[in-house]
Every structure is written in structure tokens, then in C-alpha cells.
Specification:
The protein is of the alpha/beta class. It has a domain of about 160 residues: TPP-binding domain (Rossmann fold), CATH 3.40.50. The strands form 3 sheets. It has a 3-stranded antiparallel sheet, covered by helices on one side. Helix 1 crosses helix 4 and helix 2 packs parallel to helix 7. The chain starts with 11 loop residues before the first helix and ends in an 11-residue tail after the last helix. The C terminus is likely disordered. The structure holds zinc ion. The site of zinc ion has 7 residues, from loops.
């Protein structure tokens, strides 16, 4: 699905026929596995914060506290002006559902093509693909909360839990986690990855690297920990 997003569709009607189905499945349909719910159970009652490059809204859908969440790269559920004429995003659920329902022969009707209510330019997804990415008010508030969370817990006992981060955008989560672990003797870096689960030599003593399936690892952790209220593990 991800690769299909890069296809040069010959018309915007075909482009949106593809993307509306893509967004509907990945943003407005429930995740097929309980990984996010298990993860939430694991951090419930703890002082946590989530930073993610995912744009599928799965953290919010699973019930993570929005104030403890920074989705850096956008959201499939938002449109922005392609100009962009201003730093504003628009909820797209109704439009996406209509595009999906009314499409025929791999095209949406032209009257459903989304346009900016301010300048009339086409709307596009609010995804960080280039420097046209709109960082709206919600984005800035989340960025500030994340920075604040890190700053006020500097040098405290902290676990940097990295799940499924690859080398597409390592500068957002992976490298900062490595650096912050190196700067704090009380920190632990834990990485779960299907492919490459490794860390630099400098923080090897503080690190746990697991090559495996995130769903299995998280559910095993949950089984091992008695997470009933009043009996939370302290790590
Ligand atoms: Zn505009």
C-alpha cells in the first residue's frame, strides 16, 4: 500500500480513488492486532510519553492520552492546503468516506476533489514529504510537550523504548534516543525490531536489543507483569 502511494496517477480522480481507500483502511478501520492496546496496558499508570513517526492514529484509537503523544510526521486523517496558504489542517473523515463510497472504475467523481476553502488550491494529505508540510497548532503544542517532558526528566531513571524504528528517518527517534542514553547513566535503551536491533558500542552496557515481533514481545511483557492497580512494576 505504501509503495502504491508513490505511483504517478494520471488524474486526481484516480489518485484520490486510491488514497481514499488507503486512508480508510489505515486510518478509519481498527488495527487488526491488539499491539497498541497491550502497549497501553503496559504503560498505564506510568510517567510515559510517546513520540511516533506513524501517521495512522493507532495510538489515539487505542486510548493513549493525547497530551502524552507527539505524532511528528502528520496524520492520514488531516488535509492541508497544497500551497500551503496557511498553517491549518482540516479533518477529512467525511470526504474520505464519500470518496470511497462514490468511486467507480477507479475514479472518484470530480465534484469530490478536495479544495482549500481559503485559496481554492487542491488539498493534500498532511504528511511530511517535503518542506510544504503544515505544522498546525496541535503539532506545535505536542512538540512543546515532548521537549518539556524530556527536559524535566533529564538525568532521571528513564527507559527509552524504541519499537520498530528503521533507517528511513532515524534522526527523529533512534539517534536522539541513543544520544540521551549516552548522556544519562540512569537511562536504559531498549529496542525491538524485526530486522536490525542494535545499538552503538558506547551504550551497549545500558541497552537491551531484541530482534523479534513487537506484538509478541509486548504481550510477553504484559503476561510477566502484574499490571493490576497498586501492583505496578517500578521499572
Ligand atoms: Zn489554501
Amino acid at each position: 500500500m505504501y509503495s502504491g502511494g508513490f505511483y504517478p496517477y494520471p488524474s486526481p480522480e484516480e489518485y484520490w480513488a486510491y488514497w481514499s481507500r488507503y486512508i480508510f483502511i489505515n486510518r478509519y478501520t481498527d488495527a487488526p492486532k491488539p499491539v497498541y492496546n497491550d502497549l497501553l496496558a503496559l504503560v498505564q499508570g506510568k510517567d510515559y510519553f510517546v513520540i511516533t513517526t506513524n501517521v495512522d492514529h493507532c495510538f489515539q484509537k487505542a486510548g493513549f492520552d493525547k497530551k502524552r503523544l507527539f505524532y511528528t510526521q502528520g496524520d492520514y486523517g488531516l488535509f492541508q492546503c497544497s500551497g500551503p496558504c496557511r498553517q491549518e489542517t482540516f479533518d477529512n473523515e467525511d470526504t474520505i468516506r464519500r470518496m470511497r463510497e462514490r468511486q467507480k472504475d477507479m475514479r472518484i467523481p470530480s465534484d469530490l476533489l478536495p479544495v482549500c476553502p481559503h485559496c481554492g488550491k487542491p488539498l493534500t494529505m498532511n504528511l511530511r514529504a517535503d518542506d510544504q508540510f503544515v505544522e498546525d497548532e496541535g503539532w506545535h503544542r505536542a512538540a512543546e510537550r515532548y521537549e518539556n517532558f524530556l527536559r524535566t526528566r533529564e538525568s532521571q531513571r528513564i527507559l527509552f523504548l524504541e519499537l520498530g524504528v528503521g533507517y528511513n528517518t532515524p534522526g527523529i527517534i533512534k539517534y536522539p534516543f541513543w544520544r540521551m542514553t549516552a548522556q544519562n547513566q540512569a537511562a536504559t535503551y531498549a529496542c525491538v525490531n524485526y530486522g536490525d536491533a542494535s545499538c552503538p558500542e558506547e551504550i551497549a552496557e545500558q541497552s537491551i536489543c531484541i530482534k523479534g515481533d513487537i506484538g509478541e514481545v509486548v504481550s510477553t511483557l504484559l503476561d510477566d507483569a502484574d499490571c493490576s492497580p497498586g501492583n505496578l512494576p517500578d521499572a
